[in-house]
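Support case: user asked for a sample of complex input and structure output to validate their parser. Sending the pair below.
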Amino acid sequence: MFRGDGRAVVPISASMAADDDKRLAAEAAMAEVVDGMLVGLGTGSTAAHAIRALARRAGDGLRIDCVATSETSAALARGLGLSVRDFAAVASVDLTIDGADEIDGGCRAIKGAGGAMLREKCVAAASRRMVVIADGSKWVDRLGGAPVPVEVLPFAHSFVARVLEQRAMPVLRMVDKAPYLTDQRNVVLDCRFAGLDPAADATWLQSIPGVLGHGLFLSEVAAAYVAEHGNVTRLERSRGTG
Ligand SMILES: O=C[C@H](O)[C@H](O)[C@H](O)COP(=O)(O)O
């Protein structure tokens, strides 16, 4: 099966459960999890489906350890009986399963609507393989419809915002009338770019003092499971991409 842009995709299954594409995508990714793995747990509503699916499989006898990309995911996983190790003591992860805010045909993603992109990037980088799970609304031809979240040292946020204005419209993320804080107690500037150039803008973001991380995942994602109207498609990153 081919998308309009000619990229090959592999149809996996069709399901009557069209109202729960996130869960279907998460369950499809379970095929990649085998006994003995150290699994990276993503963050967000789609990743939560994967955590619940992993817990069910662990209940059926699958032996895995996990690391989590957020305190929320760690708490969910532990509450379901999964073994969650401290990532600070982990150098390498076998497989990470995470959500995304946007994913394109080259398996490039925008992540971080839930504020977890810095830990997600660290765990992804430590992983032998990272797969994204998503419902069809996340699948885009071109990245940039969603804002790019940028995690910033609070000390530097006004300076960083001024620099970001050269290429984007940064908005300080707020919750209950106060700046949103990540698990690391940093702030987030959500950036809408006027014509995102993913590679150039990722390099530029990383060069700004005070920027600790951002939600552009351009080389980390090996494959994506995208469920749309009950149909799950696996999109593999092309060799040589990114
Ligand atoms: O910080 C949050 C993460 O990057 C999420 O994986 C991403 O925002 C997707 O979340 P959801 O599955 O809830 O749409």
